[in-house]
């Protein structure tokens, strides 16, 4: 294992917590289950799991991500296995770099966490082709995910290879390793019926084949509606409180709780409020669940061309508790951390107590778990999506805000309510930094870098690949070796054709199955067309300029991620199906069936000029001021690493569409395509009520993705080779790096906020519970609280960044906070008599709002 470099920022929440579960010994342990839970070495365990997909970050980030999950109260990591990243062609395997699965598993093991390995090997996951290698589609006779011999042969071969690899490294629990569960297939229940009887046979075969691998740990199948009894069926949804496994002797597991949603180029940005994520988790454990996995806990990045689709963005941030760049997303991360602590306090009673449900009102209920010893935990819910409710339980009155759940580890004291967010909010900004040319440049005084420019020709370069009458399918032709396929043809326009003489404009009409296309006529870019994440197909209809004589048409058809799910998804094609010229003398000229000449990919791609060692394979032109809006252009600059340690994004807002690399590492597709201003976005998200992916969107009318993550570990201090391929034209002089910084922290807490001191709270010593609201603030590593931007104890208004004093305000608020927090890395504020004037404005429910700066 290579020495690991971990960005220090990932550690800004020091792990001062006592571990909530025993660290794993390397002795073999027994994983079994019954209807209540997994039973690990005879002990029931409540599992709070975090999906972190290893190829969606880089090895240098893995230890930090796993630690940050652990600090967030996670005890299990979950990942898919990405077949098409591992088996590049039949029998040609790769387990290096971001695909070093064993290394990832060992990092999880060293952190003392369990691991759920969802082998699939079909995974969907908004990943290119759902994770199945594209070559398998071209093995004659193959149909994916059904009772089909070639598919089953290759699937079994790959699964066996992975299982054997895990066994060799002793990674299964039965060998003392972290893996406690494995998954076969993925959400097949939705599509099984499309495959008829063969689908049913395939399900049985998949379960049997997996169980026969003898891993010593149970197998799961998610969203499988006719699971064989040898596997556990699990739920994937925004809510799984009502889920029941098919068989009564299976435990209730939730493999995908979506804390946000993915994005597609050209659509707005979905967010799921932390109150609702916490609500769904608390409800699940209230109603008898015993394993819950956040999909995603860290979404990360679809580097290179790994994004599925079509149209999935390069960012796979997912509004997850850890953001794409590896920073805790606050308050979501912290709110869930408090939830996990609270749930864990109930673990023994939940898993070993006798459950009883009591109705406390029309939409209010409590689930009580009582053990013979008298130990008791209760979870009370109010599923009213509009109104708060006061309920009486065991002669005590409790108030629950609308759509919220309270947790009572001793059946008496509320330690957490899902709607009361007391953990800090951080404001994160992308701070632009100019590209700094590395020393070798002859232009020392110039601020920007020297750009080397290389232009591709529109159409065939070198020799054509083939010529054919009619339009071929894009995917079948490129077989995904590149996003790009040139379709070229030409036609003669009569000198006597009146249409372009008397100013009437002929038009081009294109119909395409997807995903996007640039139309070049006589080497000039005329128009771009594209579909979107909902409807990949599109039409182009645009006036064009033609000339008398020969006119050359070159269509650059593009894939933007292959289909990743659906019945028979591997047969979904792309590319133009009809090309016509209308409005010329002859009427309509249908080019769809004439002779076309084809070229797969770009010249620069085939020469791999994005790899530092290969850049000299073409002649670059050097310039300080590259021209703008120039299509089909490669740009290269040699730059220093941006200063500091913060994560880095490449700002491509002034570019068109294309691909980027740093030091030969593939950053991925960039496309600052804007979301329609007519989509529905919200200023403030109402967490109450059922969440849907389009409920709390932001970014209408803005670029879906402006910044592209470039991991710090890809940089050296200077001499970094940044290569961009721009398809349609942009302004390369405006390309910047941006560093991701926490600019301020906010906290907001009400007098009645449930709060407890973790170090002292034990179920047996619940008396020590202090009915006192506290809130803590913690700056990123090696920064301190440098200013108190706002503080008001009273009834402040607004939210983080826009707080203002309300009608009730303790004038000492700022000085109290300054005294406690200034120049500290972290501080804790208490809503007590000693600190604040709690007796003023007696009829007002008071709260404290604080915003501080860290530097
Ligand atoms: C594992 O535990 C289960 C239930 O406690 C038990 O039935 C089974 O025999 C155990 N298996 C092994 C290999 O010890
Ligand atoms: C798998 O199928 C074979 C052949 O039908 C059968 O003998 C075996 O018991 C099955 N194994 C499991 C684990 O279901
Ligand atoms: C609630 O109070 C009533 C009357 O004071 C008492 O009889 C009853 O036992 C109490 N119930 C519980 C669960 O404490
Ligand atoms: C996607 O394209 C379809 C058809 O053009 C359109 O109706 C729909 O509004 C588009 N969706 C988005 C999110 O832009
Ligand atoms: C090629 O693509 C079309 C879809 O456009 C599909 O119907 C056809 O079966 C494909 N052929 C192969 C071998 O995938
Ligand atoms: C237009 O029609 C004339 C006469 O039919 C034919 O000779 C010529 O090739 C046509 N031109 C095109 C561009 O199809
Ligand atoms: C690139 O060139 C350097 C220096 O010649 C060499 O050490 C390195 O292995 C080369 N890298 C690749 C990927 O070929």
Give the key terms.
855 residues, binds 2-acetamido-2-deoxy-beta-D-glucopyranose, globular, Jelly Rolls, alpha+beta, 44 strands, disordered N terminus
Question: How would you portray this structure in words?
Answer:
With 855 residues, the chain is of the alpha+beta class. Among the domains are: 353-408; 437-456 and 605-639 and 647-734, Jelly Rolls (Sandwich); 466-601, Galactose-binding domain-like (Jelly Rolls), CATH 2.60.120; 741-854, Rhamnose-binding lectin domain (RBL) (Jelly Rolls). The chain has twelve helices and 44 strands. Strands 4-5-8-9-10-11-12-13 form an eight-stranded parallel beta barrel, surrounded by four helices. Mean pLDDT is 92; it is low at 1-24 and 756-771. The structure holds 2-acetamido-2-deoxy-beta-D-glucopyranose (7 copies). Residues 491-494, 586, 589 line the site of one 2-acetamido-2-deoxy-beta-D-glucopyranose (NAG). Residues 491-494, 586, 589 line the site of one 2-acetamido-2-deoxy-beta-D-glucopyranose.
Q: Which structural class do you get from the secondary structure elements?
A: alpha+beta
Ligand names:
2-acetamido-2-deoxy-beta-D-glucopyranose
Percent of residues in beta strands?
25-35%
Give the distance, in angstroms, between the N- and C-terminal Cα atoms.
Answer: 35 Å
């Amino acid at each position: 294992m290579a020495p690991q470099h971990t960005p220090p920022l990932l550690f800004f929440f020091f792990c001062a917590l006592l571990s909530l579960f025993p660290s794993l010994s390397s002795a073999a342990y027994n994983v079994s289950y019954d209807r209540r839970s997994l039973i690990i070495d005879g002990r029931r365990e409540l599992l709070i799991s975090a999906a972190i997909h290893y190829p969606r970050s880089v090895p240098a980030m893995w230890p930090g991500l796993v630690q940050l999950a652990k600090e967030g109260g996670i005890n299990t990591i979950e990942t898919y296995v990405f077949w098409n990243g591992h088996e590049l062609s039949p029998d040609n395997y790769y387990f290096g770099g971001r695909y070093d699965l064993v290394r990832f598993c060992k990092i999880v093991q060293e952190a003392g966490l369990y691991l759920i390995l969802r082998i699939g090997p079909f995974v969907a996951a908004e990943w290119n082709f759902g994770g199945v290698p594209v070559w398998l589609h071209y093995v004659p006779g193959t149909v994916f995910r059904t009772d089909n011999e070639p598919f089953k042969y290759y699937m079994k071969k790959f699964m066996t290879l992975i299982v054997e690899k895990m066994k060799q490294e002793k990674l299964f629990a039965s060998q003392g390793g972290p893996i406690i569960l494995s998954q076969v297939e993925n959400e097949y229940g939705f599509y099984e019926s499309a495959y008829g009887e063969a689908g049913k046979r395939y399900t049985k075969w998949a379960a049997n084949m997996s169980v026969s691998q003898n891993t010593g740990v149970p197998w799961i199948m998610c969203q499988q509606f006719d699971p064989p009894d040898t596997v556990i069926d699990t739920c994937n949804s925004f809510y799984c409180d009502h889920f029941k496994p098919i068989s009564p002797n299976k435990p209730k597991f939730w493999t995908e709780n979506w804390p946000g949603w993915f994005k597609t180029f050209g659509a707005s940005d979905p967010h799921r409020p932390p109150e609702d994520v916490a609500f769904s988790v608390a409800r699940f454990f209230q109603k008898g669940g015993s394993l819950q996995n956040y999909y995603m806990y860290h979404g990360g990045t679809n580097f290179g061309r790994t994004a599925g689709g079509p149209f999935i963005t390069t960012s796979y941030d997912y509004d997850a508790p850890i953001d794409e760049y590896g920073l805790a997303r606050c308050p979501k991360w912290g709110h869930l951390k408090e939830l996990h602590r609270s749930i864990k306090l109930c673990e023994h009673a939940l898993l070993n107590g006798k459950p009883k449900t009591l109705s406390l009102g029309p939409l209010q209920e409590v689930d009580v778990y009582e053990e013979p010893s008298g130990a008791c935990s209760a979870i009370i819910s109010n599923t009213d999506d509009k109104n708060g409710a006061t309920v009486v339980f065991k002669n005590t009155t409790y108030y629950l805000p609308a759509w919220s759940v309270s947790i009572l580890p001793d059946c008496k004291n509320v330690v957490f309510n899902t709607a009361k967010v007391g953990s800090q909010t951080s404001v994160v900004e992308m701070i632009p930094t100019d590209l700094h040319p590395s020393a070798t440049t002859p232009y020392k005084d110039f601020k920007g870098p020297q750009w080397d420019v290389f232009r591709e020709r529109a159409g065939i370069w070198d020799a054509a690949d083939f010529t054919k009458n009619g339009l071929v399918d894009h995917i079948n032709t490129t077989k995904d070796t590149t996003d790009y396929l040139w379709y070229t043809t030409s036609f003669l326009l009569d000198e006597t054709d009146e249409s372009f003489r008397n100013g009437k404009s002929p038009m081009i009409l294109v119909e395409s199955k997807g995903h996007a296309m640039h139309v070049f006529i006589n080497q000039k870019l005329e128009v771009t067309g594209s579909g979107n994440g909902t409807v990949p197909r599109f039409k182009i209809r645009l006036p064009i300029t033609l000339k008398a004589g020969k006119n050359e048409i070159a269509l650059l058809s593009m894939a933007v991620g292959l289909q990743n799910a659906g019945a028979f998804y591997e047969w979904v094609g792309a590319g133009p199906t009809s090309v016509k010229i209308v409005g010329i003398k002859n009427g309509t000229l249908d080019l769809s069936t004439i002779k076309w000449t084809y070229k797969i990919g770009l010249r620069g791609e085939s020469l791999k000029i994005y790899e530092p060692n290969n850049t000299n394979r073409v002649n670059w032109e050097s310039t300080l001021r590259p021209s703008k809006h120039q299509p089909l252009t490669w740009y290269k600059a040699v730059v220093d690493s941006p200063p500091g340690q913060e994560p880095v994004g490449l700002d491509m807002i002034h570019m068109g569409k294309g691909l980027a690399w740093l030091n030969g590492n593939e950053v991925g597709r960039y496309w600052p395509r804007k979301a329609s201003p007519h989509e529905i976005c919200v200023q403030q998200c109402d967490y109450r009520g059922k969440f849907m992916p389009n409920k709390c969107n932001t970014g209408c009318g803005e670029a879906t993705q402006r910044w592209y993550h470039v991991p710090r570990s890809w940089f050296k201090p200077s001499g970094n080779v940044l290569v961009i391929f721009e398809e349609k034209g942009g302004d390369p002089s405006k390309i910047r790096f941006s560093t991701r910084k926490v600019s301020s922290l906010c906290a907001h807490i009400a007098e009645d906020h449930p709060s407890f001191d973790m170090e002292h709270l034990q179920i047996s010593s619940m008396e020590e519970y202090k009915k006192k609201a506290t809130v803590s603030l913690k700056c990123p590593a090696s920064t301190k609280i440098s200013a108190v931007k706002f503080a008001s104890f009273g009834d402040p208004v607004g939210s983080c960044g826009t707080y203002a004093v309300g009608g009730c305000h303790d004038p000492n608020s700022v000085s109290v906070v300054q005294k406690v927090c200034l120049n500290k890395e972290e501080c804790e504020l208490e809503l007590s008599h000693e600190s604040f004037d709690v007796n003023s404005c007696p009829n007002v429910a008071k709260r404290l709002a604080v915003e501080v700066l860290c530097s």
